[in-house]
Amino acid sequence: MEPSAREFIEALIQIPELSVTGYQIQSQAVLIFVEVQVRVGQCGQCGAITREIHQYIDRKVRHLPVVGKPCYLIFQEYQWICRKFRF
Ligand SMILES: [Zn+2]
Q1: Is the pTM of this model over 0.85?
Q2: How far is the CA of 75 from the centre of ligand 1 (A)?
Q3: Three-state secondary-structure class, residue 77
Q4: How many domains does the chain have?
Q5: What is the pLDDT of residues 63-87, one digit of tens each?
């Protein structure tokens, strides 16, 4: 994707932790593919701050309409786990 289109979409969605990797304009919807930028998170078991990713979950979240079409952000959400609960 050319940088200008990416910058435009990033300005549109206004979520600093997300970086846009692509988009698809369909007849009924606009899909925006994004990557989550965060590198640390909270352990799902104990709440500790961790850098270990436990698993990815595919998410599709509705965002504000673009050019009158419903707009969805497509991304993988991270689930975090600390070393204590890793295995
Ligand atoms: Zn933990």
Answers
A1: no
A2: 24
A3: strand
A4: 1
A5: 888 878 999 999 998 999 999 998 7
